[in-house]
Write a structure and sequence with these properties.
The complex is a heterodimer of chains A (95) and B (401). Chain A is built from three helices and no strands. By secondary structure, chain A is mainly alpha-helical. The mean pLDDT of chain B is 97. The chains are: A mainly alpha (95), B alpha/beta (401).
Protein backbone atom coordinates (compact mmCIF):
# COMPACT_ATOMS: atom_id res chain seq x y z
CA UNK A 1 0.00 0.00 0.00
CA UNK A 2 2.75 2.42 0.87
CA UNK A 3 5.01 0.96 -1.78
CA UNK A 4 7.02 3.87 -3.14
CA UNK A 5 6.85 4.22 -6.86
CA UNK A 6 9.14 6.70 -8.51
CA UNK A 7 6.99 9.31 -10.19
CA UNK A 8 8.77 11.31 -12.84
CA UNK A 9 7.67 14.67 -14.02
CA UNK A 10 6.20 14.47 -17.48
CA UNK A 11 3.05 14.93 -19.54
CA UNK A 12 1.39 11.79 -18.19
CA UNK A 13 1.86 12.72 -14.54
CA UNK A 14 0.80 16.30 -15.20
CA UNK A 15 -2.34 15.09 -16.98
CA UNK A 16 -3.26 12.94 -13.97
CA UNK A 17 -2.71 15.88 -11.62
CA UNK A 18 -4.75 18.20 -13.83
CA UNK A 19 -7.57 15.64 -13.89
CA UNK A 20 -7.69 15.68 -10.09
CA UNK A 21 -7.56 19.48 -9.95
CA UNK A 22 -10.38 19.83 -12.47
CA UNK A 23 -12.58 17.22 -10.79
CA UNK A 24 -12.02 18.22 -7.16
CA UNK A 25 -11.95 21.94 -7.86
CA UNK A 26 -15.10 21.66 -10.00
CA UNK A 27 -13.37 23.67 -12.71
CA UNK A 28 -14.90 24.28 -16.12
CA UNK A 29 -12.40 22.69 -18.55
CA UNK A 30 -13.31 25.25 -21.22
CA UNK A 31 -11.88 28.00 -19.04
CA UNK A 32 -8.53 26.22 -18.57
CA UNK A 33 -5.58 28.28 -19.72
CA UNK A 34 -2.13 28.18 -18.11
CA UNK A 35 -2.26 31.86 -17.22
CA UNK A 36 -5.79 31.70 -15.82
CA UNK A 37 -5.68 32.77 -12.18
CA UNK A 38 -7.30 30.71 -9.48
CA UNK A 39 -9.66 33.62 -9.00
CA UNK A 40 -10.63 33.46 -12.73
CA UNK A 41 -11.41 29.79 -12.25
CA UNK A 42 -13.32 30.53 -9.04
CA UNK A 43 -11.03 28.23 -7.06
CA UNK A 44 -11.36 29.24 -3.40
CA UNK A 45 -9.51 28.04 -0.33
CA UNK A 46 -11.95 25.21 0.34
CA UNK A 47 -11.58 24.04 -3.28
CA UNK A 48 -7.82 23.90 -2.78
CA UNK A 49 -8.36 21.73 0.29
CA UNK A 50 -10.60 19.41 -1.77
CA UNK A 51 -7.95 19.24 -4.51
CA UNK A 52 -5.27 18.32 -1.96
CA UNK A 53 -7.48 15.58 -0.53
CA UNK A 54 -8.07 14.22 -4.03
CA UNK A 55 -4.31 14.21 -4.66
CA UNK A 56 -3.76 12.33 -1.39
CA UNK A 57 -6.25 9.67 -2.55
CA UNK A 58 -4.63 9.46 -5.98
CA UNK A 59 -0.93 9.71 -5.10
CA UNK A 60 -0.74 8.97 -1.39
CA UNK A 61 0.91 12.24 -0.44
CA UNK A 62 -0.11 14.75 2.22
CA UNK A 63 0.29 18.35 1.06
CA UNK A 64 -0.52 21.16 3.53
CA UNK A 65 -2.20 24.35 2.34
CA UNK A 66 0.76 26.28 3.70
CA UNK A 67 4.24 26.24 2.24
CA UNK A 68 4.90 26.72 -1.49
CA UNK A 69 1.16 26.72 -2.30
CA UNK A 70 0.81 30.06 -0.53
CA UNK A 71 2.50 31.88 -3.41
CA UNK A 72 0.43 30.27 -6.16
CA UNK A 73 -1.72 32.58 -8.28
CA UNK A 74 -2.26 30.90 -11.66
CA UNK A 75 -3.37 27.48 -12.79
CA UNK A 76 0.02 26.76 -14.35
CA UNK A 77 1.79 27.63 -11.07
CA UNK A 78 -0.60 25.35 -9.21
CA UNK A 79 0.21 22.42 -11.49
CA UNK A 80 3.96 23.15 -11.24
CA UNK A 81 4.00 23.33 -7.46
CA UNK A 82 1.84 20.24 -6.97
CA UNK A 83 3.84 18.23 -9.50
CA UNK A 84 7.04 19.22 -7.73
CA UNK A 85 5.77 18.16 -4.31
CA UNK A 86 4.41 14.86 -5.61
CA UNK A 87 7.64 14.00 -7.42
CA UNK A 88 9.80 15.02 -4.43
CA UNK A 89 7.78 12.85 -2.09
CA UNK A 90 8.21 9.85 -4.38
CA UNK A 91 4.56 9.29 -3.72
CA UNK A 92 3.03 5.88 -3.99
CA UNK A 93 0.96 5.20 -7.09
CA UNK A 94 -2.20 4.50 -5.13
CA UNK A 95 -3.24 4.21 -1.53
CA UNK B 1 -11.54 47.97 41.25
CA UNK B 2 -10.38 44.84 43.05
CA UNK B 3 -6.98 43.56 41.97
CA UNK B 4 -6.81 39.88 41.13
CA UNK B 5 -3.78 37.69 41.72
CA UNK B 6 -2.73 34.23 40.61
CA UNK B 7 -1.83 32.00 43.54
CA UNK B 8 -1.75 28.53 42.02
CA UNK B 9 -0.79 26.87 38.73
CA UNK B 10 -1.44 23.34 37.57
CA UNK B 11 -1.12 21.51 34.28
CA UNK B 12 -0.84 18.17 32.57
CA UNK B 13 0.70 18.07 29.10
CA UNK B 14 2.58 15.73 26.85
CA UNK B 15 5.70 17.10 28.57
CA UNK B 16 4.57 15.39 31.78
CA UNK B 17 2.32 15.88 34.78
CA UNK B 18 2.80 19.22 36.45
CA UNK B 19 4.04 22.72 35.81
CA UNK B 20 7.67 21.77 36.49
CA UNK B 21 8.14 19.36 33.54
CA UNK B 22 6.01 21.65 31.35
CA UNK B 23 8.04 24.79 31.99
CA UNK B 24 11.30 22.88 31.87
CA UNK B 25 10.47 21.60 28.37
CA UNK B 26 9.16 24.99 27.20
CA UNK B 27 12.10 26.89 28.65
CA UNK B 28 14.62 24.47 27.19
CA UNK B 29 12.82 24.21 23.84
CA UNK B 30 12.49 20.44 24.11
CA UNK B 31 9.48 19.33 22.04
CA UNK B 32 7.24 16.50 23.22
CA UNK B 33 6.09 15.76 19.67
CA UNK B 34 6.11 12.06 18.86
CA UNK B 35 4.33 9.46 16.77
CA UNK B 36 0.89 8.99 18.31
CA UNK B 37 -0.16 5.72 19.89
CA UNK B 38 -3.76 5.00 18.90
CA UNK B 39 -5.89 1.92 18.41
CA UNK B 40 -7.01 3.19 15.00
CA UNK B 41 -5.00 4.56 12.08
CA UNK B 42 -4.92 8.38 11.98
CA UNK B 43 -3.67 8.48 8.39
CA UNK B 44 -0.56 10.15 7.07
CA UNK B 45 -0.15 12.79 9.74
CA UNK B 46 0.65 10.70 12.78
CA UNK B 47 2.72 13.03 14.98
CA UNK B 48 1.36 15.13 17.83
CA UNK B 49 1.92 15.84 21.51
CA UNK B 50 -0.15 13.13 23.13
CA UNK B 51 -0.93 12.44 26.78
CA UNK B 52 0.08 8.97 27.91
CA UNK B 53 -3.34 7.39 28.59
CA UNK B 54 -1.94 4.58 30.76
CA UNK B 55 -0.08 6.97 33.03
CA UNK B 56 -3.19 9.13 33.26
CA UNK B 57 -5.45 6.19 34.11
CA UNK B 58 -3.01 5.03 36.80
CA UNK B 59 -3.77 8.21 38.75
CA UNK B 60 -7.48 7.41 39.22
CA UNK B 61 -9.68 4.70 40.70
CA UNK B 62 -11.99 2.50 38.56
CA UNK B 63 -15.14 4.47 39.44
CA UNK B 64 -13.57 7.72 38.26
CA UNK B 65 -12.28 6.06 35.10
CA UNK B 66 -15.80 4.86 34.34
CA UNK B 67 -17.35 8.28 34.94
CA UNK B 68 -14.81 10.52 33.26
CA UNK B 69 -13.41 11.05 29.78
CA UNK B 70 -9.66 11.77 29.70
CA UNK B 71 -10.39 15.50 29.24
CA UNK B 72 -12.01 15.50 32.69
CA UNK B 73 -9.24 13.42 34.28
CA UNK B 74 -6.69 15.95 33.04
CA UNK B 75 -8.68 18.82 34.55
CA UNK B 76 -8.96 17.03 37.90
CA UNK B 77 -5.18 16.57 38.09
CA UNK B 78 -4.43 20.15 37.05
CA UNK B 79 -6.94 21.53 39.57
CA UNK B 80 -5.40 19.46 42.36
CA UNK B 81 -1.92 20.81 41.60
CA UNK B 82 -3.09 24.42 41.33
CA UNK B 83 -5.03 24.24 44.61
CA UNK B 84 -2.08 22.65 46.40
CA UNK B 85 0.21 25.45 45.28
CA UNK B 86 -2.33 28.08 46.27
CA UNK B 87 -2.32 26.56 49.75
CA UNK B 88 -6.06 26.97 50.11
CA UNK B 89 -7.69 24.84 52.80
CA UNK B 90 -10.45 22.53 51.58
CA UNK B 91 -12.98 24.49 53.60
CA UNK B 92 -11.93 27.75 51.93
CA UNK B 93 -12.31 26.36 48.43
CA UNK B 94 -15.68 24.72 49.06
CA UNK B 95 -18.86 26.75 48.98
CA UNK B 96 -20.49 29.49 46.93
CA UNK B 97 -17.64 32.05 46.92
CA UNK B 98 -15.54 30.01 44.47
CA UNK B 99 -16.18 29.68 40.72
CA UNK B 100 -14.98 27.08 38.24
CA UNK B 101 -14.70 28.21 34.63
CA UNK B 102 -13.00 25.84 32.22
CA UNK B 103 -12.55 26.03 28.49
CA UNK B 104 -13.13 22.90 26.43
CA UNK B 105 -13.30 23.03 22.66
CA UNK B 106 -15.37 19.95 21.95
CA UNK B 107 -15.67 17.74 25.04
CA UNK B 108 -15.15 14.03 25.55
CA UNK B 109 -14.30 13.21 21.97
CA UNK B 110 -12.55 9.93 22.84
CA UNK B 111 -15.71 8.65 24.54
CA UNK B 112 -17.78 9.78 21.57
CA UNK B 113 -15.37 8.19 19.13
CA UNK B 114 -15.18 4.84 20.93
CA UNK B 115 -18.94 4.68 21.56
CA UNK B 116 -19.98 5.51 18.04
CA UNK B 117 -17.34 3.24 16.53
CA UNK B 118 -18.85 0.43 18.57
CA UNK B 119 -22.39 1.40 17.61
CA UNK B 120 -21.97 2.12 13.89
CA UNK B 121 -19.14 -0.21 13.00
CA UNK B 122 -19.34 -3.09 15.44
CA UNK B 123 -23.10 -3.12 15.83
CA UNK B 124 -23.08 -2.77 19.63
CA UNK B 125 -26.61 -1.77 20.52
CA UNK B 126 -25.78 -0.88 24.12
CA UNK B 127 -24.05 2.46 24.24
CA UNK B 128 -22.76 3.36 27.67
CA UNK B 129 -25.34 5.19 29.78
CA UNK B 130 -22.38 7.28 30.91
CA UNK B 131 -21.56 8.36 27.37
CA UNK B 132 -23.46 11.65 27.47
CA UNK B 133 -22.20 12.80 30.89
CA UNK B 134 -18.66 11.92 29.80
CA UNK B 135 -18.95 13.72 26.47
CA UNK B 136 -20.60 16.99 27.50
CA UNK B 137 -18.20 19.93 27.39
CA UNK B 138 -19.12 21.06 30.91
CA UNK B 139 -18.15 17.69 32.44
CA UNK B 140 -14.58 18.78 33.34
CA UNK B 141 -15.75 21.94 35.14
CA UNK B 142 -18.52 20.04 36.93
CA UNK B 143 -16.23 17.24 38.10
CA UNK B 144 -13.77 19.80 39.45
CA UNK B 145 -16.60 21.50 41.33
CA UNK B 146 -17.77 18.14 42.73
CA UNK B 147 -14.26 17.09 43.75
CA UNK B 148 -13.82 20.23 45.84
CA UNK B 149 -17.36 21.06 46.94
CA UNK B 150 -17.43 24.27 44.94
CA UNK B 151 -21.02 25.53 44.78
CA UNK B 152 -20.50 28.91 43.13
CA UNK B 153 -20.80 29.59 39.39
CA UNK B 154 -19.59 26.69 37.24
CA UNK B 155 -19.21 27.30 33.53
CA UNK B 156 -17.75 25.74 30.42
CA UNK B 157 -16.51 28.10 27.75
CA UNK B 158 -16.38 26.57 24.30
CA UNK B 159 -14.81 28.97 21.84
CA UNK B 160 -12.35 26.67 20.10
CA UNK B 161 -8.76 27.82 20.60
CA UNK B 162 -9.81 30.86 22.66
CA UNK B 163 -11.75 28.74 25.19
CA UNK B 164 -9.22 28.80 28.02
CA UNK B 165 -8.23 32.44 27.54
CA UNK B 166 -11.88 33.47 27.65
CA UNK B 167 -12.50 31.27 30.69
CA UNK B 168 -9.63 33.00 32.48
CA UNK B 169 -10.84 36.42 31.35
CA UNK B 170 -14.36 35.78 32.54
CA UNK B 171 -13.01 34.53 35.86
CA UNK B 172 -11.06 37.76 36.21
CA UNK B 173 -14.26 39.75 35.67
CA UNK B 174 -16.21 37.68 38.22
CA UNK B 175 -13.55 38.04 40.91
CA UNK B 176 -13.08 41.72 40.19
CA UNK B 177 -16.80 42.35 40.46
CA UNK B 178 -16.98 40.68 43.85
CA UNK B 179 -19.39 38.02 42.59
CA UNK B 180 -16.89 35.46 43.87
CA UNK B 181 -13.75 35.60 45.98
CA UNK B 182 -11.71 33.18 43.92
CA UNK B 183 -11.95 31.02 40.81
CA UNK B 184 -10.38 27.98 39.24
CA UNK B 185 -9.94 28.96 35.62
CA UNK B 186 -8.29 27.42 32.58
CA UNK B 187 -9.07 24.76 30.05
CA UNK B 188 -8.77 21.15 29.04
CA UNK B 189 -8.91 19.06 25.88
CA UNK B 190 -8.01 15.49 25.02
CA UNK B 191 -8.80 14.97 21.40
CA UNK B 192 -5.91 13.11 19.92
CA UNK B 193 -8.01 10.38 18.34
CA UNK B 194 -7.61 8.90 14.88
CA UNK B 195 -10.76 10.63 13.67
CA UNK B 196 -9.77 14.04 15.03
CA UNK B 197 -6.24 13.76 13.65
CA UNK B 198 -7.74 12.92 10.29
CA UNK B 199 -10.26 15.77 10.47
CA UNK B 200 -7.53 18.31 11.23
CA UNK B 201 -5.35 16.84 8.48
CA UNK B 202 -8.29 17.18 6.08
CA UNK B 203 -8.19 20.94 6.60
CA UNK B 204 -4.54 20.72 5.50
CA UNK B 205 -3.41 22.90 8.41
CA UNK B 206 -1.21 20.26 10.08
CA UNK B 207 2.47 20.30 9.27
CA UNK B 208 3.88 17.17 7.64
CA UNK B 209 7.33 17.84 9.19
CA UNK B 210 7.80 20.42 11.97
CA UNK B 211 5.84 23.30 13.46
CA UNK B 212 7.93 26.47 13.08
CA UNK B 213 5.96 29.61 14.02
CA UNK B 214 6.95 32.95 12.45
CA UNK B 215 9.67 31.17 10.46
CA UNK B 216 10.50 31.00 6.80
CA UNK B 217 9.22 27.74 5.37
CA UNK B 218 6.53 27.22 7.98
CA UNK B 219 3.75 24.94 6.82
CA UNK B 220 1.31 24.27 9.63
CA UNK B 221 0.60 23.39 13.21
CA UNK B 222 1.08 20.36 15.43
CA UNK B 223 -1.77 19.13 17.64
CA UNK B 224 -1.47 18.70 21.38
CA UNK B 225 -3.71 18.05 24.34
CA UNK B 226 -3.72 18.67 28.06
CA UNK B 227 -5.15 20.78 30.82
CA UNK B 228 -4.04 23.98 32.47
CA UNK B 229 -5.71 25.50 35.52
CA UNK B 230 -4.95 28.61 37.56
CA UNK B 231 -6.25 29.65 40.95
CA UNK B 232 -7.08 33.35 40.88
CA UNK B 233 -8.20 35.34 43.91
CA UNK B 234 -9.00 38.83 45.03
CA UNK B 235 -5.66 40.27 46.14
CA UNK B 236 -7.17 41.23 49.52
CA UNK B 237 -8.36 37.66 50.12
CA UNK B 238 -4.98 36.19 49.23
CA UNK B 239 -3.21 38.73 51.46
CA UNK B 240 -5.60 38.05 54.34
CA UNK B 241 -4.63 34.39 54.43
CA UNK B 242 -0.96 35.16 53.95
CA UNK B 243 -0.73 33.59 50.51
CA UNK B 244 1.97 34.77 48.15
CA UNK B 245 0.93 35.81 44.67
CA UNK B 246 2.70 34.33 41.66
CA UNK B 247 1.57 37.19 39.41
CA UNK B 248 -1.16 39.77 39.03
CA UNK B 249 -3.83 38.91 36.48
CA UNK B 250 -4.05 42.49 35.32
CA UNK B 251 -5.92 42.71 32.05
CA UNK B 252 -8.22 40.98 29.60
CA UNK B 253 -9.45 41.97 26.18
CA UNK B 254 -11.62 40.05 23.77
CA UNK B 255 -13.10 40.82 20.36
CA UNK B 256 -14.80 39.05 17.51
CA UNK B 257 -13.93 39.50 13.83
CA UNK B 258 -17.53 39.02 12.65
CA UNK B 259 -15.89 38.16 9.36
CA UNK B 260 -14.44 34.91 8.12
CA UNK B 261 -15.02 31.80 10.25
CA UNK B 262 -11.52 30.43 9.64
CA UNK B 263 -9.27 33.17 8.29
CA UNK B 264 -7.93 35.43 11.07
CA UNK B 265 -7.92 39.19 10.64
CA UNK B 266 -5.38 41.59 12.18
CA UNK B 267 -7.96 44.25 13.14
CA UNK B 268 -9.82 42.11 15.68
CA UNK B 269 -6.62 40.62 17.08
CA UNK B 270 -4.96 44.00 17.59
CA UNK B 271 -8.13 45.38 19.20
CA UNK B 272 -8.13 42.50 21.70
CA UNK B 273 -4.47 43.11 22.58
CA UNK B 274 -4.99 46.87 22.95
CA UNK B 275 -8.05 46.27 25.14
CA UNK B 276 -6.16 43.86 27.41
CA UNK B 277 -3.25 46.28 27.83
CA UNK B 278 -5.61 49.18 28.57
CA UNK B 279 -7.61 47.01 30.98
CA UNK B 280 -4.36 46.41 32.89
CA UNK B 281 -3.83 50.18 33.07
CA UNK B 282 -0.68 49.87 30.99
CA UNK B 283 0.72 51.20 27.74
CA UNK B 284 2.09 48.90 24.99
CA UNK B 285 5.65 49.95 25.90
CA UNK B 286 5.14 48.38 29.35
CA UNK B 287 4.81 44.88 27.89
CA UNK B 288 8.16 43.11 28.03
CA UNK B 289 7.23 39.70 26.64
CA UNK B 290 4.47 38.21 24.50
CA UNK B 291 3.57 34.55 24.32
CA UNK B 292 2.01 34.47 20.87
CA UNK B 293 -0.85 32.37 19.60
CA UNK B 294 1.77 31.40 16.97
CA UNK B 295 0.33 28.24 15.50
CA UNK B 296 2.83 27.89 12.67
CA UNK B 297 0.28 28.35 9.90
CA UNK B 298 0.88 30.98 7.26
CA UNK B 299 -2.44 32.69 7.99
CA UNK B 300 -2.20 32.95 11.78
CA UNK B 301 1.40 34.02 12.08
CA UNK B 302 1.07 36.57 9.32
CA UNK B 303 -2.12 38.11 10.76
CA UNK B 304 -0.74 37.99 14.32
CA UNK B 305 2.49 39.72 13.26
CA UNK B 306 0.46 42.41 11.51
CA UNK B 307 -1.74 42.83 14.60
CA UNK B 308 1.31 43.06 16.90
CA UNK B 309 2.71 45.75 14.62
CA UNK B 310 -0.48 47.77 14.92
CA UNK B 311 -0.30 47.64 18.73
CA UNK B 312 3.43 47.94 19.40
CA UNK B 313 4.49 50.02 16.38
CA UNK B 314 8.14 51.03 16.50
CA UNK B 315 8.56 49.06 19.73
CA UNK B 316 7.85 45.70 18.08
CA UNK B 317 11.39 44.86 16.86
CA UNK B 318 12.73 44.97 20.43
CA UNK B 319 9.83 43.00 21.97
CA UNK B 320 10.44 39.26 22.50
CA UNK B 321 7.46 37.36 21.02
CA UNK B 322 7.73 33.60 21.30
CA UNK B 323 5.46 30.74 20.34
CA UNK B 324 5.70 27.64 22.49
CA UNK B 325 3.24 25.43 20.59
CA UNK B 326 6.01 23.48 18.79
CA UNK B 327 7.00 22.16 22.24
CA UNK B 328 3.63 21.35 23.86
CA UNK B 329 1.46 21.22 20.75
CA UNK B 330 -1.65 23.22 20.03
CA UNK B 331 -3.79 22.09 22.94
CA UNK B 332 -6.90 23.85 21.55
CA UNK B 333 -9.32 24.37 24.46
CA UNK B 334 -6.42 24.23 26.93
CA UNK B 335 -4.01 26.33 24.87
CA UNK B 336 -4.76 29.70 26.47
CA UNK B 337 -4.23 28.32 29.97
CA UNK B 338 -1.02 26.45 29.20
CA UNK B 339 0.38 29.49 27.46
CA UNK B 340 -0.62 31.86 30.27
CA UNK B 341 1.19 29.52 32.67
CA UNK B 342 4.25 29.74 30.38
CA UNK B 343 3.85 33.53 30.31
CA UNK B 344 3.73 33.74 34.12
CA UNK B 345 6.78 31.48 34.41
CA UNK B 346 8.62 33.63 31.86
CA UNK B 347 7.83 36.71 33.92
CA UNK B 348 8.88 35.05 37.19
CA UNK B 349 12.08 33.52 35.79
CA UNK B 350 12.96 36.59 33.71
CA UNK B 351 13.39 34.25 30.77
CA UNK B 352 11.74 34.24 27.34
CA UNK B 353 11.33 30.67 26.07
CA UNK B 354 12.39 30.05 22.47
CA UNK B 355 10.39 29.56 19.30
CA UNK B 356 11.98 26.31 18.15
CA UNK B 357 12.37 24.87 14.64
CA UNK B 358 12.95 28.41 13.34
CA UNK B 359 14.76 28.41 10.00
CA UNK B 360 15.05 32.11 9.23
CA UNK B 361 13.03 35.30 8.99
CA UNK B 362 9.76 35.34 7.09
CA UNK B 363 8.96 38.64 5.34
CA UNK B 364 5.39 38.64 6.68
CA UNK B 365 6.47 38.05 10.31
CA UNK B 366 8.54 41.01 11.44
CA UNK B 367 8.76 39.95 15.06
CA UNK B 368 11.63 38.96 17.32
CA UNK B 369 10.49 35.36 17.73
CA UNK B 370 13.30 34.48 20.21
CA UNK B 371 14.44 31.99 17.57
CA UNK B 372 15.69 28.60 18.72
CA UNK B 373 17.42 29.83 21.90
CA UNK B 374 15.60 31.24 24.91
CA UNK B 375 17.10 34.25 26.64
CA UNK B 376 17.00 36.35 29.78
CA UNK B 377 14.55 39.25 29.72
CA UNK B 378 13.67 42.10 32.03
CA UNK B 379 9.90 42.32 31.98
CA UNK B 380 7.42 43.74 34.46
CA UNK B 381 4.40 42.80 32.36
CA UNK B 382 3.65 40.17 29.74
CA UNK B 383 0.83 39.19 27.42
CA UNK B 384 -0.59 35.93 26.11
CA UNK B 385 -2.65 35.77 22.89
CA UNK B 386 -5.30 33.28 21.83
CA UNK B 387 -7.15 33.43 18.52
CA UNK B 388 -9.85 30.99 17.53
CA UNK B 389 -11.78 29.60 14.60
CA UNK B 390 -14.96 31.62 14.63
CA UNK B 391 -12.96 34.85 14.58
CA UNK B 392 -12.65 35.13 18.36
CA UNK B 393 -9.62 36.93 19.79
CA UNK B 394 -8.62 36.98 23.44
CA UNK B 395 -5.57 38.49 25.14
CA UNK B 396 -4.51 38.34 28.78
CA UNK B 397 -1.98 40.56 30.54
CA UNK B 398 -0.08 39.60 33.69
CA UNK B 399 2.30 41.69 35.78
CA UNK B 400 4.90 40.78 38.38
CA UNK B 401 3.41 40.30 41.83
Amino acid sequence: MDEKVALVDGPLLRERIIDVIVKEGMIDRDKLRPDATLADLQVESMDVVQILMGLEDEFGVYIPVDGPLTEVRTFAELVDVLTGVIVRNGASGAS
Amino acid sequence: MRRVVVTGLGCVTGCGEGVEPFWSAVRGGRPAVARVRLSRDPGRIDRAVQIDREALAARFDPAQLLACDPCTLLALLAAREALAQAGLAAAEVAGPRTAVILGCSIGGIETLDDGFHGFYKEGHSRLSPLAIPRIMANAPACHVSMAHGITGPVLAISTACASAAQAIGLGLMLVRSGAVERALVGGTDALITAGMMRAWASMRVLTPDACRPFSAGRNGMVLGEGAGILVIEAETAAAARGASALAVLAGYGTTSDAGDLLRPGPAGASAAMAAAIADAGLAPADIGYVNAHGTGTIANDSAESDALGRVFGAGLPSLPVSATKPVHGHALGAAGALELIATIMALRDGFAPPTINWLGPSPDCRVDAVPNEGRAIRAEAAMSNSFAFGGINASLVVTRA
